[in-house]
Structure formats: structure tokens, C-alpha cells
């Protein structure tokens, strides 16, 4: 059963991200001019101002930099509280905000290694696959 989630951001760039997630591939836009990953999605590279990107597949591995538990119902019942959020530094060097899968804040230590997986979710735009992170084995 799909997890109900708050609405995603959709539109140019974001749609490509979610389409890759639907294929269970974690891909981010890479600037064709300077080679930097452009994340979060942006219409122009923040390093060199170019506007052409190619979507490169990442390893899906990273380590936890920070984390927190949300107890306030910011999404008006669209997401059960409390829930944990993690900040992952991906192997490729970008920071990625996500949720832990199969572990909680009591299990987390700085630098803990994690791997991406995709879970079936749904928002008002329909079903989608959300990248979350489980402990690396
Ligand atoms: Zn660039």
C-alpha cells in the first residue's frame, strides 16, 4: 500500500527527478559545462550559470550528516507524526534530505552509512516512488 505524502514540487527539472525515481534510479542533474551536480533542481548552474544538464545516475550511497524528529503536524494530517528526517551526504558530494527506512533517530550516529531504496507513495498528483535511506550492510 502506498504511503500518503504531502504534495511534491513538480515542474521543469522536478518532473525529470521523479520520473527517474519511478524507475528506482537516483539521478541528479549534472552541469554539462562545468560538471558540478546541480541540486536542488535549478534552471541555471549555480557554479557557472550554464543551463544545460544531463541526468547522471548516482551510487545511492552516502552517510548521515544530521537528523531530526518532527513532532508538529505541519502537513495537516497528510503525514503521521512523529517522523524522522535525515540529511545525507551522498558519495558524489551533494546533500540530500530524506527519511530513514527501517531505523530511527535512536539508531543514528554521525557518519552512519546508508543506501537508497524507493518506497511507493502517493500525493494529490498520483502515485510516485520516494527515495528513502536504509542502513548499509
Ligand atoms: Zn556549471
Automatic annotation (TrEMBL):
SUPFAM superfamilies: Nucleic acid-binding proteins. It comes from the Bacteria. This is ChsH2 C-terminal OB-fold domain-containing protein. Residues 55-118 form the ChsH2 C-terminal OB-fold domain. Pfam families: OB_ChsH2_C.
Amino acid at each position: 500500500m502506498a504511503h500518503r505524502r504531502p504534495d511534491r514540487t513538480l515542474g521543469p527539472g522536478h518532473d525529470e527527478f521523479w520520473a527517474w525515481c519511478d524507475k528506482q534510479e537516483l539521478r541528479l542533474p549534472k552541469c554539462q559545462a562545468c560538471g558540478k551536480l546541480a541540486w536542488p533542481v535549478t534552471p541555471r548552474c549555480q557554479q557557472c550559470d550554464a543551463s544545460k544538464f544531463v541526468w547522471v545516475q548516482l551510487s545511492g550511497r552516502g552517510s548521515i550528516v544530521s537528523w531530526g524528529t518532527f513532532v508538529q503536524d505541519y502537513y495537516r494530517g497528510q503525514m503521521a507524526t512523529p517522523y524522522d528526517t535525515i540529511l545525507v551526504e551522498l558519495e558524489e558530494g551533494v546533500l540530500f534530505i530524506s527519511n530513514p527506512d527501517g531505523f530511527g533517530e535512536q539508531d543514528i550516529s554521525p557518519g552512519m552509512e546508508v543506501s537508497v531504496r524507493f518506497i511507493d507513495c502517493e500525493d494529490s498528483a498520483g502515485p510516485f516512488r520516494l527515495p528513502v535511506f536504509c542502513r548499509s550492510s
